[in-house]
Specification:
Layout (H helix, E strand, L loop, with lengths): L5 H13 L6 E5 L6 H6 L2 E4 L2 E5 L3 H21 L7 H15 L4 H21 L2 H19 L6 H24 L8 H22 L4 H17 L10 H15 L2 H7 L4 H17 L7 H21 L4 H17 L2 H20 L6 H24 L8 H13 L4 H9 L2
Parallel strand pairs: 1-3
Antiparallel strand pairs: 2-3
Length: about 425
């Protein structure tokens, strides 16, 4: 490595990033060099779409990339000469640096400045298709980076920024006229959303409990829900609306199968709540009825009940039950909600009474989570102005059970305030 100058390191790695096939997977690991001489003269290896960086050399590489980056950034942004290649050199250096330091906020900010300068040149030529390809390529770079750094918040923030540039491009085409006579903005948006959802799904599956992937996925489905407005889907674009609704319906239905495979994924449970809320908001169209919403919510309650029966000692499963229960209080009438409340107390109590396992700790968790759920739902009902006098017998039984357990003081205090 010492035989390579710092600039040649950037050139070598940047060349590998640009050479076809474009890398799709990154791994920082111990590379299988054939002899010791290769270890001293090279830090990178590429095989097909797989790019490797030799882990022992990472500290020296990071220092070299940072040094070059800081020396290039002022020169590049002060340059007025459009033929000067300093901007390209800076972009190459940033691409290399971020592979090792994915949360370098200043580098990401400078990358956005470089991208906007390149886009402005394309805008002058009015080449919309090239601009779209340009942004897709940037998404490809970030996706490759995620294969090694899936939980880098600045990288996810940059991806959201790129997505907004693409959405602005779709909106611009909607105002200025389509590329084809039969083109609708919703077509491109659905393609974009499908790609983003697929990327988030792969990352969440490969790197479990990935808060950033689920948060980005929420951004995608919220965008789709907002696009249901007339500003993007025209009156004649009924097919586009139906396609968007199909995507939202699919997203609202994935929680149960996902939690069956990932019973401790809190982020997935909260995403399920966001997806369900959006589906209830737009899924029924302009003539959405309470009966339709009730059917959807009751279906989710049945799903969460099945999950609890399978995994009663997992907190996330009970969290998902809470999320589903909240929709009941805003969808059902007061009488229906009160009946539901009584059923929930009975259901959770049965889980408490029938707790069984070879593991004493698991039995304790079943009872803890079931009682915590009852206390939560009673507190939520009180906040929704429900009269709990008719449930005082059940509440007193719950109090007795809670006293026998080592419940958090905050839970006990809530229960005492209920009467």
């Amino acid at each position: 490595m010492e035989s390579h100058s710092e600039s040649s390191l950037v050139s070598e790695l940047a060349g590998l990033l640009k050479d076809t096939p474009i890398p799709k997977e990154l791994e920082v690991t111990i590379l299988p060099f054939e002899n010791d001489e290769d270890v001293n003269t090279s830090s990178f290896m590429k095989e097909g779409v797989h790019l490797g960086i030799h882990a022992p050399n990472v500290p020296k590489l990071a220092r070299a990339f940072r040094k070059i980056y800081y020396s290039l950034r002022n020169v590049a942004f002060d340059s007025i000469d459009s033929k000067n290649d300093s901007m390209d050199n800076l972009m190459d250096c940033i691409s290399c640096l971020l592979l090792l330091c994915p949360d370098h906020a200043t580098a990401w900010a400078d990358r956005r400045r470089c991208l906007l300068k390149r886009v402005s040149a394309l805008e002058k030529k009015s080449v919309t298709a090239c601009m779209l390809i340009f942004w897709i390529a940037e998404l490809g770079y970030i996706t490759m980076l995620f294969t090694q750094h899936s939980k880098a918040p600045n990288a996810w923030g940059h991806r959201r920024w790129v997505c907004r540039q693409m959405l602005a491009l779709f909106s611009l085409e909607n105002r200025n006229g389509a590329l084809r006579e039969d083109w609708h903005p919703s077509e491109s948006i659905i393609q974009w959303a499908t790609l983003e959802i697929a990327v988030c799904s792969v990352i969440a599956e490969t790197y479990p409990k990935n808060y950033y992937a689920w948060t980005h996925r929420i951004f995608v489905i919220r965008t789709l829900a907002n696009i249901m407005s007339p500003s993007m889907c025209t009156k004649n674009d009924d097919n586009g609306r139906e396609n968007i609704k199909a995507v939202l319906e699919t997203e609202a239905s994935l929680t149960e199968p996902w939690l069956c495979r990932h019973v401790s994924d809190h982020s997935a449970a909260h995403y399920g709540g966001e997806a369900l809320a959006l589906w209830l908001q737009v899924g029924g169209g302009s003539n959405v009825t309470r009966k339709w919403k009730m059917a959807i919510v009751q279906g989710k309650l049945q799903e969460s009940r099945r999950l609890i029966m399978k995994f009663p000692s997992h907190e996330v499963i009970w969290t998902w039950r809470r999320i589903c229960s909240k929709f009941c209080f805003v969808t059902f009438t007061k009488e229906e909600a009160l009946s539901f409340l009584q059923e929930e107390i009975s259901f959770a109590s049965s889980i408490f009474d029938e707790a069984s396992s070879n593991d004493a700790k698991e039995i304790e968790m079943q009872r803890l989570f079931s009682m915590a759920y009852v206390v939560w739902i009673l507190k939520y009902a009180r906040e929704c102005d429900f009269d709990l006098i008719s449930l005082m017998d059940e509440i007193n039984v719950i109090k007795g059970r809670v006293r026998q357990m080592e419940m958090p003081k905050s839970v006990i205090q809530v229960l005492m305030k209920l009467g």
